Amino acid sequence: MTKKRVLVGFSGGVDSAVTALLLRERGSVVQCAMMSVKDESGHGCGAAGDVEAAARLAASLELPFRVFDCSAAYREAVLDNFRDEYLAGRTPNPCVQCNPRVKFTALPALARAAGWDFDGIATGHYARIGRDGDRPVLMRGVDRTKDQSYFLYRIPPEVLARVEFPLGGMEKKAVREIARERGLANSDKPDSQDFSGGDYADLLCQSEAEGDIVMTDGRVLGKHRGFWRFTPGQRKGLGVAYTEPLYVVRLEPAANRVVVGTWRESLAQGCIVRDTVWSGSPPEAGREVMGRVRSAQAIRPMTVVSARNGEVEVRFADPIHGVAPGQSLVMYDGEVVVGGGIITKSIRDA
Prior knowledge:
- β8 and β9 (220-224) form a beta hairpin.
- The strands form 4 sheets. The chain has a 6-stranded antiparallel beta barrel with strand order 12-15-14-13-16-17. Strands 3-2-1-4-7 form a 5-stranded parallel sheet. Strands 9-8-11-10 form a 4-stranded mixed sheet.
- The protein is globular, with a radius of gyration of 22 Å.
- The chain starts with a strand and ends with a strand.
- Helix content is 25%, strand content 32%.
- α3 packs antiparallel against α4 (94-113).
- It contains 9 helices and 17 strands.
- The chain has 350 residues and is of the alpha/beta class.
């Protein structure tokens, strides 16, 4: 019987290492592929020394290892998108763009072009793949504190059909225990940060541009050095004083203005999303779903108000803080990811 050949997205962290180990122990032929995504200015994922550490780890596991230059795809899908979105006053999520266009598309394509043969792709993400008839569906990870389905919702079914997430049914502490039992040098290595842009002004190629920080009624409270340094929902680092805590309510790029307000003013009753993707049929108006508007937020009930021409409006059962255009709204039906889209507008009742 021919063994299954699996390409493992290998970062040198504990999750990707245990993923490779588990697959090999299950009888798969494992090949470790690492993305190189740093642009010419040094922006991108990973830290200095990651490649060398990953190479040493793969060698200790006696697994083939190779680095593939994904910087061109990463620049287009992530960095250019990041710059465009931030300068338009939106807050993009780099991982949401990177996963479908770089990690699960460009990386395996480059590996195949280099002569590597494999049947499927695996990563150390905390998510699961289920089935709806003959169709693969994305599901939440068992470890709710590590669930990464939010970052993966845009991966199309034809790609999911070739993907494995060996850690999706495990708790993080169990993964680290496996690493310790196998004597992996990185068993206690802290989780890496997926995206690091350094100073945003440098990443966005912007010089300081002084503008006003204003209340929702237009009162000027102070000055800032560029609206792109702020994000809706932000509280700390505003540089203004008031009688109660203030939060960024919205950004106004054309006027280089940051609008702030009280906690109540920062709450949204709903939002509108576009650029939607769905695992099956789009949700119809009136459907009740669970969803979240940021990766770290709890999943909450909401109702689809309208869905037409690729645009969906939802209303939250309870107001949500920090709804930021550019972020994703991801919807769930139980454990299954229904789909989602990019938030274009937060809805606040007068």
